[in-house]
Design brief:
This protein has eleven helices and nine strands. By secondary structure, the protein is α+β, with helices and mostly antiparallel strands. The structure holds flavin-adenine dinucleotide (FAD).
């Protein structure tokens, strides 16, 4: 609970002021991200010997929920650095890679990005067109990645690329690419519906020489690395969806007790009460799924099915609840100063990234059939 309190205080002092303006101006929360690093929110689950917080996944869920209530742009920056970059490196990186990169990523001295999606490879992540040609002691990297969160702010990119197309997904590698490496170009910033404070960019790689020691795992391990890392990432995005929903619900509840219509607070109208009841019930169910996935991960159980269920369910809850929160606010819900319209726009992405809802159903049903 101390972590929840710390996250709450951080949102009130650092994130809430200016969140509307950052959304309007698509402004990356640079100072706030720096502070998140100082407070230990960017490498929460990493071993303290690498500069991390040494916490469990349950604490991570609590922190992400709290931060997403106020600023979902900040929480996706946090989720990517924690679950996709730090966790992947800590689990599969060499000692040298951890020493060189994780010790700076975990305390947030630098941030990282995870680069899987391409113009022609989204849900079907096996059809990688980015090529990492084996040149002996280095890979020659050529191709384009799309939609990369932290695209322009990251110092380190984990890039998934095809080395041997004949081997299909078994010929894919994961490489650590540094921002400074010659041949890496950051493309334009995407102008998005929601999470507008996060910077989403395409990346172009032209003859980038990546030393062999920057490969994560054995030759051909890249696809397994990406899928395994995304299983953990989904807990972060599910918790982000949960936070967006609870942030909107809390605002709607408070508003319903203040706003009067027909001589009484609107919370006295049963139609509003039933909306609040549905919202609170859905949120509680989403929270339990997030915590269950986190607990399974902490107990080293197979959490692939539960994390997909948590993301599928919580992201739908985020959509349902934010739409109702706008409705409860009436016309005021449709303007920026009441925050709920932003939360409604932010909610949508949770059904798309780190595997769309349709892909979550594929993951879940695959696991069910396997049982
Ligand atoms: C803001 C933002 C941030 C992102 N951040 C990152 C990032 O940091 N790193 C990264 O690598 N990627 C990132 N992504 C990419 C994201 O993960 C992909 O957009 C997502 O996986 C979907 O891929 P796609 O857009 O190519 O859609 P497509 O794969 O083309 O899918 C289009 C539609 O078809 C459906 N569909 C596809 N295949 C099937 C199927 N077999 N069965 C049923 N339905 C199917 C999908 O569910 C979807 O509804 C980000 C995207 C956005 C918008």
């Amino acid at each position: 609970m101390a972590v929840k309190k710390a996250a709450y205080e951080f949102t009130q002092t650092e994130l809430l002021p200016g969140v509307i303006e950052r959304d309007i101006n698509q402004e990356f929360p640079k100072q706030q991200v720096k502070k998140m690093g100082e407070l230990g929110f960017l490498g929460m689950m990493v071993d303290p010997k690498y500069g991390g917080g040494g916490m469990d996944t349950v604490s991570y869920v609590l922190a992400i929920e709290e931060i997403s209530k106020v600023d979902a742009s900040a929480s996706v920056i946090m989720s990517v650095n924690n679950s996709l970059v730090c966790s992947g490196l800590e689990k599969y990186g060499t000692d040298e890679q951890k020493e060189k990169y994780l010790t700076r990523l975990a305390p947030g001295k630098i941030i990282g990005a995870f680069c899987l999606s391409e113009p022609e490879a989204g849900s079907d992540a096996t059809s990688q067109r980015t090529i990492a040609e084996d040149k002996g002691d280095y890979y020659l990297l050529n191709g384009t990645k799309n939609w990369i969160t932290n695209g322009n702010s990251a110092s380190v990119y984990l890039v998934i690329a095809q080395t041997d197309p004949k081997k299909k997904h078994l010929g894919i590698n994961a490489l650590i690419v540094e921002r400074e490496m010659a041949g890496l170009e950051v493309g334009k910033k995407e102008d998005k519906l929601g999470i507008r404070g996060s910077d989403t960019h395409s990346l172009m790689f032209t003859d980038v020489k990546v030393p062999k020691e920057n490969r994560i795992g054995e030759d051909g391990f890249g696809f397994k690395f990406a899928m395994d890392t995304l299983n953990g990432g989904r807990i972060g995005i599910a918790s982000q969806a949960l936070g967006i929903a609870s942030g909107a619900y809390e605002r709607a509840l408070a508003y319903s007790k203040e706003r009067k219509a027909f001589g009484v607070e609107i919370s006295k109208h049963q139609a509003i009460q039933f909306k609040l009841a549905d919202m609170a019930t859905e949120i509680e169910a989403a929270r339990l799924l997030c915590l269950r996935a986190a607990t399974e991960k902490d107990h080293k159980k197979d959490f692939a099915k539960t994390s997909a269920m948590a993301k599928l369910f919580a992201s739908q809850v985020a959509m349902d609840v934010t739409i109702e929160a706008v409705q409860i606010h009436g016309g005021y819900g449709y303007v920026k100063e009441y925050h709920v319209e932003r939360l409604m726009r932010d909610a949508k992405i949770t059904q798309i990234y780190e595997g769309t809802s349709e892909i979550q159903k594929i993951v879940i049903s695959r696991e069910l059939i396997k049982l």
